[in-house]
C-alpha cells in the first residue's frame, strides 16, 4: 500500500463488504418494508387510554419535588390546554406507548412541543434556531416526537381560537416540513447532515416573503433582543451590588438566593459546600479546553430558580461566577435531571446518570451546543443523591410568543419546527429509512393530522379534569408571579 492508498475501512471478508453505493438503497428498502408492515394510515389511531388517568400520572411525578412549588406547577398547567400539554409529557408518553410504530429509532427529544424550540447563541456567537429542551431525551420511535409536535400545533391553534381549516394548515405544515426535510437529509452525506444548522438570519430570509412588513420588523427586533440576552445582560437583570460585589437579587418564589434560604451560617455553609461539590464533578464532565476556560472563573453566589411548566418543583439553581472582575460574569444553571418519562415504557437509559443522559442526548440532537454543557451527581443537603446538568443560563436564548401568533404565523412556525425536528432526528437515526417510510405523498401527514385532532380533544378533556380538581379543592394552586 502506498502513502496515497486509502486504509481499509473494515476487516470483514470481501464477500461481506458493503458497497457504499448500494447502502442507501438498502436503507431505503428498510423504510419501505416498515411501511408495508405498519401502513402510514395506521398512525391516525389514538387507542383508548388504559391504566392510570392523567391526574394520577401527574401526581406520581410530584414525589420528590419541592412540595411548596407544586401549587405553582398546577397553576401554570391549568392556564390553558396548551400549558397542560406542556407539563404533561408523562401523560402523552403513556398514550404514545400504545400507538403503532415503524420500528425505526432515533434520539428522541421526548417533549417536542412547539414551545421547546427556540433561538440561542452558537459558540461562534451566531443566533441559531433548534430544539432546546432535552429533559426527556432517550432513544425511541421517531414517530413519537412527530406526534407530540403535531398535537401541540393543533392544541395551540385551538387555544388561539383559529378555524379548523387554519389549524389543519398549520399541522400539515409541520408534517410536510418534517417529511420534505427528511427526504433532503436522506440525499446528504453524514457530515453534511452533522454540520447543517439554521441561523436566525437564514430563517428570516426563508420566510420573508410570507411575513407582513410590520411583523417582519417586529421579528427583527425580537432577534436583536435575543442577542442581547448574554451574561452581561443577565448581570444587569438578576444582580445588584453588595459591598461592591454582584449578588443575585431576590424575587421569591421564582428566584431565592441561598443566603435567604439558609440564613443560619452553618446551614448556609453546608449548601455552599454542596454546590461546590456539584461544580467539582461538573468540571470533570467538560473537555480539557473547557475545563481551562471554566477555571478562569470563581463562584460568588447561588440562588434557587423556578423554571418552565413541567419542571416546576424540580431543583434548579442559578450560579453566578466572576472572571476578570465584577464586569466579567458567567451565569450557569444547574437543573435537576430525573428519569425520562420515556424510560417507563422504553426501558432504562444506558448512561450512568440522568444528567449524562440529558447532555449526551442534547449533543446528539443539536447542531451547535453550549460550550459549558455538562453534568454531575451529588448528595444534597438532605443527604439524597440527585443528578444535575449544567449549562449557561442566558446565552441568546429566546422563543416565539405563541399567544400572539396569527394563523398564518402558526403555519410558518410549524413548518420551521417540523424541519428542525427532522434535522435533529437525521443526526441520530437512519434518515434514509425514515425518508423511505414517509415517501413522497402526504399519506403520513394526513394520518398524523387526524391523530393530532384526536389528541387535542383528549388534552382538552384532561385540562378540564384538572380545572375541576382545582375548583373542588383537591389540587392546590397559587397565583403565578410569572
Automatic annotation (TrEMBL):
Residues 1-45 are annotated as: Disordered. It comes from the Bacteria. It comes from Pseudonocardia sulfidoxydans NBRC 16205. This is DUF2252 domain-containing protein. Pfam families: DUF2252. Residues 18-32 have a biased composition (Basic and acidic residues).
